[in-house]
Amino acid sequence: MRKYFLWISCVLFIFSISVIGWKPVSAGRSTANFKAVAAKGLFEQYAETVYQAAKLQEAGLSIEVFQKALTGYFNLKTANKLSQNSSVITVVDFTKPSREKRMWIIDLLSKQLLLNTWVAHGKGSGDDVANAFSNNDESHQSSLGFYLTDDVYNGKHGRSLRLDGLDEGFNSNARARAIVLHAADYVSQTAIEQMGRLGRSFGCPAVSPEVVGQVINTIKGKTVLFINGNDPNYTSKYLDENIVANFTLPDSASAAADSAKL
Question: Does domain 38-261 fall into CATH 2.40.50.140?
Fold first, then answer.
């Protein structure tokens, strides 16, 4: 009987310690975590919807790179850096060889791929694949990151599009380096057949003369251009997922409608 009493006492003692030591999860923290998870889920769902509708996988664009570009788009939109009705985003992936069509222009509103084409990288960045990047003048290297397209002008390469680099330390010297989007004869199927790759620029994202008019007319005037590449040191304040969460899941009841309309 005494042993039984001692056993019951031990059980009650352990239970009392457990009850006293247990603390409920803060309601505020729980709500915040739920909203963050829900917002991330909504963003990924939206990205996947556009990705599938625009057939971006078939066009060779990875979902990971597209999500990075889309994250930057929402960050820049929240910062009011884009033109009011801008729904166009341009993605360049320099992890792919130049002989592949590695530029994609996407209309997020209509969920359509407007153009998939070749684009050259800087001669200082590598031969077929770009593996070195710089923000320095005279490096002849491409620069990674988010750009804002600006105005059109006629220069030594003909009709060209000015670009403003938005990532400090990575592409912020684009204006000073005269990094612009322009046409080049070495961006063509003929160049690939002759050299096994495209020709290279002095750091500009050069495109084929056959499509330069379409490219410039489609993306000019404060739209997003994102250049991705193999650089583990690349960071950007425009990859802030918290901004995306706030944009995707605000407190107002009109959240989904506003997000869908961009």
Answer: no
Q: What is the Cα–Cα distance from 208 to 156, expressed in whole angstroms?
A: 15
pLDDT, mean of residues 233-242: 95
- C-alpha distances in Å from residue 24, one per residue of 21, 29, 34, 225: 10, 11, 16, 46
Q: Look up the pTM and report it.
A: 0.83
Q: What letters, b where the CB count within 10 A reaches 16 and e where it falls short, cover 29-55?
A: eeeeeeeeeebeebbeebbeebbeebe
Distance CA 218, CA 197 (A): 26
Domain ranges of the chain: 38-261
Q: Tell which residue, 237, 119, 88, 124, has the closest CA to residue 170.
A: 237
Distance CA 242, CA 247 (A): 9
Task: Please give the Cα distance from 243 to 184 (Å, whole number).
Answer: 37
pLDDT confidence of residue 243: 86
249, two tokens: 């899941």
Tens of pLDDT, residue by residue over 18-32, are 333 334 445 555 655
* Cα 126 to Cα 103: distance, rounded to the nearest angstrom: 18
CA distance 56 to 119: 17
Q: What is the CA radius of gyration of the chain?
A: 25
